[in-house]
Write a structure and sequence with these properties.
With 404 residues, this protein is of the alpha/beta class. The chain is 40% helix and 14% strand. It has 18 helices and twelve strands. Helix 1 packs across helix 8 and helix 8 packs across helix 9.
Length: 404
C-alpha cells in the first residue's frame, strides 16, 4: 500500500532533487507522513541505487528503504526542455528540495529566484555541506568529512585511547536530513499563516556542530570560558558498557535517587560512603573513578542477574543488543515496528515510522522505485499532452524505466 495521501502531510507535493542519504532521508520522512514525493533523477540515477545487496542491480536494499513511497522521474536537466518540464512541475509543488552545491544548482538555472518566478508560494530547501556565507561553501562534503570537521571524530578519540574514529553510523547525513525535514515542515506552517514561500538552508557542517555542542559546549558557553568545550561524563574512557560475568550491559546510574537505590541493591558497601558519590557535581568531577568502581562491581554477577536486580531497583539498564537481535526484539515485535510485505523484489522488511499520530497516521510506501518508473504519469498529471511527452522522450530529455 502506498503511503501517499495517508498521514499529516497528505496533499503536500515535494520535488526531490536529492541523492545519497541526507536529502533522501529527509524526503523519506515526508513520504512516510503522506506527502507525494517526486524523486527527480538524472539518467544515471541516484548513486545509492547501486549499493549492494539487492536482487535488482539498480535498486539495492539501502536505496529501496530510504526512497520508499516516492515516485521517480528521469530528467536530463542539461537539456533546456527537461529544465522547462521541471519548472512546469514546480508550478503545482509545495516544496523543492535539493542536495547540490550552490554553484551546481545555479549552473542548471534552478536556484530559488528561478523557482520563485513560477511559483511564489514554493518552499525551496538547500541541503548541502557548508553554509553559503562562509569560506567552506564550495567544499565537497560527505558524512565522514563532516564528522571529521565537526568535532565528532575528536570526541570519539577520547574513547579510543586517542585514536580518531568515525561513528559507526552516518550521523551527519541523518542529523542533517532530520533537520531538513523539520525546517521544511516549519516553513509549511509559516506559509499557512502568511501565504509566503521562502528559501531554506540546511548545511551539514553547521547542523552537526550544533548537534555536538548541545552538551559539549559546556564551560565554553561562558565568555570568558569557565572550562573547555567538553562534557566530561560523555568523554570519560570509563563510560562504556559494563562487563558482567558472562557478557555486557548498559547501565545508567544517573541521579541521586538512582545512586541510593543502587547502593541499597548491592548491600550498601563501605565505598558507597565515599564523598565523591555524594552529589551530581562530585560524581561529575570524579567521573572516571566513579565509573571504574561500578565497573569492578558489575563483573561479579551475570547479565541476567544484574538485569533482574536493576529492574527491581528501577535503575535504567538494558543488555547490549546487536542489530540482528533487534530484528527479533520482543518489544519491537509487539509494537509492530517491523513491517514485512510482498513486493516484486520478494518479501521485504521495513523499519516502521517511529512517530505516531492518533488522527492522521502515516504509512510505509512501496520500496524505492525503478529509475524513471513514473516519468510518463508525472508529466501527464502536470498537463503535458501525449505528443509533448513523446517528444521529450524522443530527445532523451525524459527517460522511462527500462523494461524488466
Amino acid at each position: 500500500m502506498s503511503g501517499r495521501g495517508q498521514g499529516p502531510l497528505a496533499g503536500v507535493r515535494v520535488l526531490d532533487l536529492t541523492s545519497v542519504l541526507m536529502g533522501p532521508y529527509a524526503t523519506q520522512i515526508f513520504a512516510d507522513l503522506g506527502a507525494d514525493v517526486i524523486k527527480v533523477e538524472s539518467p544515471d540515477g541516484d548513486t545509492t541505487r547501486y549499493l549492494p545487496p539487492g536482487n535488482d542491480p539498480a535498486r539495492g536494499g539501502m536505496f529501496m528503504n530510504v526512497n520508499r513511497g516516492k515516485r521517480s522521474i528521469v530528467l536530463d536537466l542539461k537539456q533546456p526542455s527537461a529544465k522547462e518540464a521541471l519548472l512546469k512541475l514546480a508550478e503545482t509543488a509545495d516544496v523543492f528540495i535539493h542536495s547540490m552545491r550552490a554553484q551546481a544548482i545555479g549552473r542548471l538555472g534552478l536556484d530559488y529566484p528561478a523557482l520563485q518566478a513560477v511559483n511564489p508560494r514554493i518552499l525551496y530547501a538547500n541541503l548541502y555541506g557548508f553554509a553559503r556565507s562562509g569560506p567552506y561553501r564550495d567544499y565537497p562534503a560527505y558524512d565522514d568529512i563532516v564528522q571529521a570537521a565537526s568535532g565528532i571524530v575528536d570526541l570519539q578519540a577520547r574513547l579510543s585511547k586517542g585514536e580518531p574514529t568515525y561513528l559507526a553510523t552516518v550521523v551527519a547525513d541523518k542529523v542533517a536530513g532530520l533537520t531538513g525535514a523539520y525546517a521544511v515542515m516549519a516553513a509549511l506552517y509559516a506559509r499557512e499563516r502568511t501565504g509566503l514561500g521562502q528559501e531554506i538552508e540546511v548545511p551539514m557542517f553547521e547542523t552537526l556542530v550544533s548537534f555536538a555542542t548541545v552538551e559539549h559546549l559546556c564551560g565554553s558557553l561562558f565568555v570568558p570560558p569557565l572550562g573547555p568545550p567538553e562534557y566530561p561524563r560523555a568523554t570519560s574512557e570509563a563510560r562504556r558498557p559494563y562487563k558482567t560475568a558472562d557478557g555486557y550491559i548498559g547501565v545508567m546510574i544517573y541521579n541521586d535517587k538512582h545512586w541510593r537505590a543502587f547502593f541499597h541493591a548491592i548491600g550498601d558497601p563501605d565505598w558507597s560512603k565515599d564523598p565523591m558519590f555524594a552529589s551530581m557535581r562530585t560524581r561529575t568531577q570524579n567521573i572516571g573513578k566513579v565509573l571504574a568502581q561500578v565497573a569492578a562491581v558489575m563483573e561479579q554477577r551475570t547479565t541476567d542477574e544484574w538485569m533482574a536486580l536493576l529492574r527491581e531497583a528501577q535503575i535504567p539498564a538494558m543488555a547490549i543488543a546487536s542489530l540482528t537481535d533487534l530484528l527479533h526484539d520482543p518489544h519491537l515485535v509487539e509494537t509492530g515496528f517491523w513491517q514485512e510485505r510482498e513486493t516484486e523484489e520478494g518479501v521485504l522488511r521495513f523499519p516502521g515510522i517511529p512517530t505516531g499520530f492518533s488522527a492522521t497516521p502515516g504509512a510505509i510506501g512501496e520500496p524505492g522505485p525503478a529509475l524513471g518508473a513514473d516519468s510518463r504519469a508525472i508529466l501527464d498529471e502536470a498537463g503535458f499532452g501525449s505528443a509533448e511527452i513523446d517528444a521529450l522522450i524522443g530527445t532523451g530529455a525524459v527517460r522511462l524505466a527500462e523494461p524488466a
